[in-house]
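We emphasize that the prediction below concerns an isolated chain of 369 residues; any contacts that depend on oligomerization or on bound cofactors are therefore not represented. The input was used exactly as deposited, without trimming of termini.
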Amino acid sequence: MTTTMRRGDAWSWMDDVVPFVAMLTITSLDMVVLNFSKAAMNDGMGSIVFVIYHNALGTLILLPFFIFYIVRKADRPPLTFRILFRFFILGLFGICLFQVLVYLGIGYSSPTMASAIWNLGPGVTFLVAVIFRMEKLDIRSSSSVAKLLGTMITILGAMVFIFYQGPYIFHRIHSSDSPTLLLSSQPSKWVLGGLIITTGGVFGCMWIILQTATAREYPDQQALVFFFCLFGTLQCIALSPLLEQNRSAWVLQPGNGVTAVVLGAVCSTVVHNNVVTWCLRKKGPLFVAMFSPLSIVISVIMGVTFLGDSLYLGSAIGATIIASGFYTVIWGQTKEKNMLMVVTGNDLDVLDEPGSSDPLLSIRNEQEC
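Result of the prediction step, given as a token string:
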């Protein structure tokens, strides 16, 4: 019995470590793709061109794996019209709206702004989860109040980040013949870019909630990711005549453009979608969202090093406020989980704060696969 318990503890430990390492790696890869895509856009590539090319290439990479999976697995769940329509909506929210808006906003601003605004994710995800009844909001519960307060703080921090730049903290000066100058952020509409990224982030949070529910209802991950990418790519192609009328813009130039498309296809479309879908099914939407603050650090380092970005006081203040709100939300979520462990471990009927049983039940349901 002791050996069995030790094996169970080992598997439980792996269930926590593997998703953590996976999301840590994915967050780093996402920032690499964002910075290369910004460099490609600085060289003249349109945001919709990048979104279509890297998703189309990624879908083609997924196709043989999907076909091989269909041939090998005979007991896969049936693809009903309802499930296909759900995949269609996932493509609309996760690619056609989220990615197009985010990369369009990055073209106006920078990857650093995108990484900072993504910290709105846990708060907005919490609000969306409340709307879809995946989370309970109880003002008598300190954990619910913490998540609501943290959401308000992150929104305040995002507004500071977008609308206030302030003086330079770090300003990189390039010589006229410096190759890095070609990659530096061009004059941009900073506020407009921030608002566009924020709008895209809301759709991204809605995608996370819908993707979580879909992954648990239809656990065939290969089919889910393939059809989600396929539908999203086709939707972007249908939308492209409205966003890019210049035919010459569709000619892929060697250099940053090719590198960005290949990295986006492999890292974002293939690896990111599969890993995030798996983590959503295993750990839930807030676990995926909690890695957002790490992206700020990675993006600032890469932006200053490779894109020649400058760091502003307003950006630092806004990022600090957002991170504070983020960890307030995470504290509330952790408190609920710890209370759940007390209840399930000691079989208690009375909790330490009134009205806290409902949120616990929602988290128990959220974490079941």
